[in-house]
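Below is how a single chain appears once it has passed through the pipeline. First comes the sequence as given, then the structure the pipeline wrote out for it. We keep one example in the README because the format questions we get most often are answered faster by looking than by reading.
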Amino acid sequence: MASNVLPLFWNLASSSKDVRLTASADLIASLEGFQDVFLANKAQNGGDSEDDEDDEDEDEDEDEDEQGPNVAGTKMGAPQDEDEENEDEEDDDEVDDEMLGMDVDDSDEEDDDEEEEGAELDAKLAKDNAEDVVYTVKRLVRGLASSRESSRLGFAVALTELLSRMPAVTAPQVISLLIRNSSVSNGMKGAEERDMLFARLFGLSALVQSSALFAPGSSRADFEAVIDRLIELGSKKGWLRESAWWAVVQASEKLLKSEVAWKEDGLKALLTTIKEEKGWTQEKVALVLLLERETPALDLKSVLSPTFKHTPLLANTNLVALSRILKETDVEGDEEGAGSSSTGSWKAQLHFVWSLIFDTYFTSSVSQTGRAPFQDFFRVVVDESLFANTSSPQRRFWGFSVFSRALPLVDNAQMPLLFTPNFMRCWMNNLSSPDRYLHKAALGIAKSVQDIVKQNPKVGFTLLSRLVGKHGRPDFDKVTKTKTVESIMSNLSGEGVGEYVKYLQGIILAGEDQTGVDAKAIEDRRKWALDQTLALCRNASVPKEDSWISSVLDFLLVHGFFVIRKLDKKSPISALHAAPKPALSEATAATCRARFFSCLVELTTASNVHREGGSSAQPAKQQGCDEAGRLWLRGVLKTMMTLEQDRKHVEVMMDADEEIKSVRQGAVATLDGLKKASGDQAEIARGVEILLSFATLQTYDENEDALDMLEEVNGAAGQLFGLTDDAEEDDAAPIDVLLDVLIALMDKGSNDLRVLANLVVGMVAPAFTSSSIQHLVAQLESSAAAAAAAEGEDDEAEDEHDHGHEEEADDDEEDEDEDVEEDEDEDEAESEEDIEGDDDEDDDMAPVDPAFRQRVVDALKSAGMAVDEDAEGDEDDDEDADSEVWDDEQMMKVDEQLAQVFKQQAGRTRRVDLKHLQIESLHFKTRILDLFDVFARKQSTNPLALDIVLPLLRLIRGAGATEGDLANKASGILRNRLGKAKDVPSSTDLPRSTSILEEIHSMARKASSTDFSALCSACSLFVSRAIDTAHPASRVVVETYRATLEDWMTRKSSLVHPNFIPDFLRRFPLRAWPLREDLIAHTGSGKGINAFRQAQAFGMLQIFSQQLAVIAQSQSQSTTSEDVAAFVSSASAAVCATLVHAADESGSDWKADRLRDVLKFALALARSAKSVLSPEQVVAAWDLPALRETRDTFAAGSRTGGMKAILLLINQLEAVLGGGKKDKEGKKAAKAGKSAKGKKSSVDKTPGEHEQDDKMDVDADEQVLSAAPSTSEDSKKINKTKTKAKAESSVSKVTAKPSVGEDKKDKAKKRKVDAGEKPSKKVKVKAAL
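Resulting structure:
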């Protein structure tokens, strides 16, 4: 019965795909079971008689009559008569005239035939299938028209599966049901009509997908009927066209792959349908492509003509017309949307015809003669059509989608062909700005390209050359504001990097290899190639292989320092195999040299893996080396010297004299001697080798101080490693000379030189001495004002020197004879030339400041000597002006005015220069701090690390408003490098270390901010660790902290921050243990400067109380239990004394909050003492009678008597020390305080919170007033009352003891209450009783 499968339909409409598929599988499985039972019963009964069949036919007829007249369509594939259509439209009394897919005939005979045909099909369906199957088929067909959730999808899937697995349900039966249940009438609304159209589309698609049209017993008429219905659907509604034709293509494909007897006839009918379709659309193209692929021998000339002249469809001559069709434009024109393929609305999704095109090119194994290569197809159909200048953004979006689909399919050789000119232009334009219409689509393309390179690094170079090549931009990443090129470079393989390097070198050598390119464009292109070469060396993700690195260094070396005279094809240096055309300019050669040194620095600072003992040895990492472990600097220096000797093929651009050559040879000899260094000296020797090699290479460039630097480094290296004996007593230490050279490199302002200097400092830092640190400190202490003053002194000395020369020249002029006058005429011409040359130089000078010029004019006007600039005089006026002579008074007046103007200008210029000097000084100090950072990071265990503490602290303390970044950098070095160092120096000079520690504490006493105090604390702890490690028996650290503690506790103006001493106590409680007596002493009345600092002293003592167990068990110092007991006794006495003093009138500065802190310490001390000391020692250490007397005194105080919370804390302390009943009462008092404060009740608290109740909340002052007694006598009365009530309660519990069962129930209920559950009414009643 239908009720058996009815529940299985419910989940077919689910929005979840998995649920729908599961429901469909369950439904079909149930139907198969019903069908098997039905067929078994039918075979057992031997079939039905003819009378039964007639009876069933009559029943079906009656059912059809009840449902209404059934109108069936005419025979599929047969042309319809226009007269019949007109008659159908005129007669709407019997049937609807707008039924889709059928022509209504008004003849009674025709209607009767259709009704009889539908009745026969239904009767056949009922005869051959189980009742549940028949019901399911009819319901699935009817359900296709439902728009509820996803019912249409679920019903279509179930119908497809049913048709594919139950051959008894035939295609004609389903077609008949589908046509009758998806008819469209005039009275339907738009939504209803749409549902009917979708029902017919999904039903016909189910027939195609299930292959029911090609099952045994199927006919050509069924196939043609389905095809006609689908084409008719596509023609009726444009938005259904693509989906309907997709089903047509699927049906055609299944026909071509089937083995039905009417296959040829069906193919002919299909061709007839194609010919009858007017115009060319994307759907028609898709069908033709399918036929060409599946039936290569089929002649389609008649189908393609006259639009396409040749076969196949993808021939070169057909691409232009095909591009218009795929662009949805008129085949004859260029207007978008004018073709018959236009659906009236644009869709972002690509048409399914592109899938067939990609299958034809990339997945089909059938080769067609005459088919255009994919390169030509993409260029004509995509680049010149979808990406054309006149294309709309919608068509360009299609182009991006086609590119994304094609990119993963093409092979490595064809991939560059996709980056066509129009595509690159459109892609870069849309990447350049987020405001572009297709910006997101362009970003998707960029991500796709990067993903392709990640998956296949071999194509990295191919894509990279396209992005920065002819159709791209050298600055692609900059223009597009992406990191596409950088990402591709990071994912290049070693082979790809080598190819890219050759590509870049080809650009430099060939100069773009274009005849019409100007020189400036060639220079820019070459400079870009050099920058890309440097980017490869700097990118840490690029695999550093010796092959391409050697090629890069050799290329830059040859073209930066040499001129190729003759090619040497056999040379191992690849750069000599080709010469640049045109030749490199001086500017390009200078760029080559700059990039050469930058690449060297990058490679030197990078770590590389090499094998010291061959390929079988364990790999090791070393900086600046190739795979063989040799420095790149040494290899390049060797190549440089080899080329210098090869006069036949190359010529040095800057030839050196004999002195420079001699110094170079000495440096090479020193480099050879450094190889002998071993052990601790090996790292230092490697750093010196790097610096010396770099200094030697610098002499080949136009650097003024390169020779001096090389001599200094060479001499210092020889002295440092004992390679030379020419040292003098007055010479500086060799390591200081090297440090001075490194500081000079930092002063140059080059980032590459700064990186190199930091690297070398880290290597040679073990050889630093105290003078080296002082030399670095001196650089920090220099100021811009001192530099300006020194510069001013130099200027004054030069002025005096020039003035002396002028006086000497005057004396010489008085002694000159008349021969000089005779020679004046001869030198007149030369003097005129010199004047002209001076005029030229004046023209090249910087323009005068307009404001300064105006001030000069105003000065002249004030002296009455101004000339009208707009006046135009003749020659007579000029003569009059020349003949005018100023007298002495006028000259003096002008001189005074001009002197004042120039003095103001000089002062203004000096201020500007001083500001620039300050900025340069700040940058220089920042770079010097980099050296301190390297030293602190590498040499935290070096005793010299202590010497950098005070200079950096002074720098931070004295930093001005403009030196905030400098101070922050210095703070980071002290805090992160030294304050967090795991290891400290193991050997230090005690007097020097003591002096440093005392100076740090002196700064802490004057600290103006919390940050600086914390920094002083970190430095003090570092120095303290170093002293304790090197001198364990020394008491310097404790004494220094004792002095600081004394200053803070006794001097009111002390600026020591409260956390300075506690930091030491927390970090080193064992070392700080001797300070306990001082802290206890400072808690007494009159000892501390005020109550606040005395309370802070108790807080410091609490740190000791928390570490009592560690202190008592420590083996490093002789601390006995008696010492701990003595500490507890002294501290308890201090607590009592403080409480007594607070109760007195003189203790008015002791407020409740400070007393709470004191009692917190007392409670913590009591608990710790009980865990460390024996009960006897605890009793001896804590004088309980004195504590009670103190409580009474405190309660009797006029000011303290009202501090009920403090009294409760005292009671709790007594309970903790006394234990037993009083301890419990203390807990109850604490809980009462909690409850009075308004916190959770005991019923609502967890067991953990019950434990926390022992630690009473000391903030409940006002809330516990009602719960606490006002006097000691009242307290005794209340305690007696509580004891009596408790006794009565216990007696009542014993007398009213419940039975065992009731006791268990009560306990269970009590557990529920304790766990937080709400008690029942019965429990509440019992609790009340």
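The radius of gyration is 51 Å.

See the next section for the split statistics.
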